[in-house]
Specification:
The protein has 536 residues and is of the alpha/beta class. It has 17 helices and 25 strands. Helix content is 29%, strand content 24%.
């Protein structure tokens, strides 16, 4: 082969911010914070603070390849660490504060993080797990000097006086940058180690017109958590396109979001359906309007049709997305095409609202049958969804074997159809996991916890429809012969074993249905109790 004669510049995350600070120097970055006044800055000023953060981390003795963990909401300081840590060769593990303590401890220990940086309202979480963290040497609270909790060092104090420039090292673009964990739906969480190359390419593609379609005229408010697969890549796709960022911290109620939309001129936002249920409810009760808001992307679970219709009536475009931690996470985005638009507005909306999205450049998709044979893209045949691409997982962190099959295809664990226009629709899940408000709940872990309760013979958990949270767990308890249990006993036992939001909404005491192979029959449970929470 004849080699090309082009410059061999490596892709680096810090170059995204350096570009934004030059091409969009005065563009604003606005942030709410925990019990602090609203923060206002620019890309140019943020680049200096990122350099100060890198100098601070370097002064702690951290070196290339070391891991740090963050326990933080959507704030400007968390955003700064998204560039400072990988920019100097560190790996940023974005810990999920909503995980059960057992899984949170596991992820930080598995990451091997030396430093933990957390928001001040995460201090109680830290204190509850501190004695079980094996590698953390230093804890820093992400707050200003006046609000640093006793016994901790504050981020602002530590970066104050640090140089506003940093000698960013040149690295191979395949160097690790972010470590994001799955939610432990079938056992311990699994680490997905993003590279500079995968993050930058994902950022390029996510901003394309066939995906999120960003421009420097957009005002972007990420309501998907920065600890969820780097907020679906928005910190990078947005900066590449010079958007104004508005970070809402941890306030996702309808009133708080509407106040930011109105005061900052937000045009674009994204998050799980639960957030938008609360937002639409607030508008209905107050008679408010979405104002400048033009587009909302919704992922985590399927968009309820009533929600899409409600936004459409308000003049706001709804786009579904599909992805997973293993795909960085964008896999498909629901955007229209001329061929689809030619079918008329009603048909176009139906496709956009009922499909998870269409193929985007960088992600190859196919569906296969049980024998691994390719199935047609006819919108009818459904099979296992397989993906591959430059921002798709090859193997999990610390795993010895590849997570992919022949030719590098990764099995997503979802069953789907793909139609002639490239639109993909999820029809089922291979594993009986529950997604509540965009967060995963492991039915297996919940069953295992309940099985330890005295008197319990079999515990079964299934997810059923919930009008607010989209899906919530219910539990069936089959007691040992001669044993009598009540709901209070079971709940009291579970309180110390699982996170409060994992607690089943209803517990039924009855025989647990089994399949012919001795497995819990989740389909029968859903058929029997699928409407149990519809009036909640």
């Amino acid at each position: 082969m004849l080699p090309g004669l082009m410059q061999d510049r490596q892709l680096a995350i810090i170059d995204i911010l350096r570009f934004a600070a030059t091409a969009h120097a005065g563009q604003e970055i606005v942030s709410k914070n925990v019990d602090e006044p609203i923060w206002r800055s620019t890309y140019a000023a943020t680049t200096k603070r990122v350099a100060q953060a890198a100098n601070m981390l370097s002064g702690l003795g951290l070196k290339a390849g070391d891991r740090i963990s963050t326990l933080s909401w959507n704030t400007h300081r968390h955003f700064e660490l998204f560039y400072a840590a990988p920019g100097m060769g560190l790996v940023a593990h974005t810990a999920n504060p909503r995980l059960p303590d057992e899984h949170l401890i596991y992820t930080i220990n598995h990451a091997g993080s030396r430093v933990l940086l957390l928001d001040r309202n995460m201090v109680d979480i830290y204190r509850g797990i501190a004695d079980k963290l094996e590698t953390v040497e230093k804890v820093i609270t992400l707050t200003d000097s006046e609000r640093t909790p006793d016994g901790f060092e504050g981020y602002e104090d530590l970066i104050s006086g640090q140089p506003e420039t940093f000698d960013w090292p040149e690295m191979d673009e395949n160097t690790a940058a972010f470590l994001c964990y799955t939610s432990g739906t079938t056992g311990d969480p699994k680490g997905v180690l993003y590279s500079h190359r995968s993050v930058v390419l994902h950022g390029f593609a996510a901003g394309l017109s066939g995906a999120l379609g960003f421009s420097a005229f957009d005002v972007v408010m990420p309501c998907q958590s920065l600890y969820h697969a780097t907020a679906w890549g928005l910190p990078f796709a947005g900066a590449i396109n010079g958007v104004k960022f508005v970070f809402p911290c941890d306030k996702y109620d309808g009133a708080s979001l509407q106040a930011l939309i109105e005061s900052e001129g937000v045009t674009f936002s994204g998050g799980v359906p639960t957030i938008w249920t609360m937002y639409l409810d607030h508008l209905e009760k107050t008679g408010g309007s979405p104002g400048t808001l033009q587009r909302v992307i919704i992922g985590g679970s399927a968009v309820p049709r009533d929600m899409a219709v409600a936004f459409d009536k308000l003049g706001v475009t709804v786009q579904q997305i599909y992805g997973m931690t293993e795909t960085s996470p964008l896999g498909v985005v629901s955007t229209s095409t001329p061929a689809l638009a030619a079918r008329g507005r009603d048909a176009e909306n139906e496709q956009i609202w009922t499909r998870q999205g269409r193929m985007m450049f960088g992600i190859e998709m196919k569906i296969v049958d049980d024998d691994g044979k390719d199935l047609p893209n006819d919108g009818v045949a459904d099979g296992a969804l397989m993906v591959r691409g430059p921002w798709v997982l090859e193997r999990y962190y610390r795993a010895e074997e590849s997570a992919c099959g022949d030719n590098g295809w990764f099995d997503t664990g979802d069953i789907s159809t793909i139609d002639e226009l490239g639109f993909m629709r999820i029809t089922d899940r291979k594993k009986d996991v529950i997604k509540s408000g965009g967060e995963w709940i492991s039915s297996i872990d919940l069953e295992n916890a309940a099985t330890g309760c005295p008197g319990v013979k079999v515990a079964a958990v299934a997810g059923v429809y919930h009008p607010k949270w989209e899906e919530r767990p219910i539990m069936l308890i089959e007691a040992h012969d001669g044993e009598t249990l009540d709901e209070g006993e079971v709940r009291a036992y579970l309180e110390s074993k699982v996170a409060s939001w994992w607690m089943p909404d209803k517990i039924f005491f009855e025989d647990v249905p089994m399949t012919a192979t001795g497995k819990i029959d989740k389909k029968t449970i859903r058929d029997r109790h699928g409407d149990a929470l519809k009036d909640q």
